[in-house]
């Protein structure tokens, strides 16, 4: 049996197309994403910053860096989670997002929590 990781963060993502804010005729598609960050490790960790790569269907990439998420730098003790909802726009009806959160433990050790690629797509375009 393997030993639990000292620093382990799980990221769960759910997405939604925001039809009422989108303007397809103007190539403006709005997507919301709801994220739950869960500390499954043994150390308390604070989310310091985020890094996103947002890719549209034309291959265009937006790179986003910023402190915290939704104006917060949540502190997660082992077993705790933090959820938030944010959004992004694309010039195409489909795209992907991926990235990472930069985390820091109480002892000052920094590590990355990787966010696997996920799809942004109009509901009828999801497989």
TrEMBL record:
It comes from Sedimenticola thiotaurini. Residues 3-127 form the ApaG domain. The gene is apaG. It comes from the Bacteria. It holds the Pfam family DUF525. This is Protein ApaG. Transmembrane segments: none annotated. GO terms for biological process: error-free translesion synthesis. SUPFAM superfamilies: ApaG-like. PROSITE patterns: APAG.
């Amino acid at each position: 049996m393997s030993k639990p990781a000292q620093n382990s963060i799980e990221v769960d993502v759910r997405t939604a197309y925001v039809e009422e804010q989108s303007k397809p005729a103007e190539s403006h598609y709005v997507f919301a994403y709801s994220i739950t960050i869960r500390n499954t490790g043994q150390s308390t960790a604070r989310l310091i910053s985020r890094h996103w790569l947002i890719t549209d269907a034309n291959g265009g990439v937006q790179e986003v860096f910023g402190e915290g998420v939704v104006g917060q730098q949540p502190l997660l003790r082992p077993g705790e989670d933090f959820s938030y909802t944010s959004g992004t726009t694309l010039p195409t009806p489909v795209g992907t997002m991926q990235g990472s959160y930069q985390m820091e433990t109480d002892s000052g050790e920094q590590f990355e929590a990787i966010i696997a690629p996920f799809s942004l797509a109009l509901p009828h375009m999801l497989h």
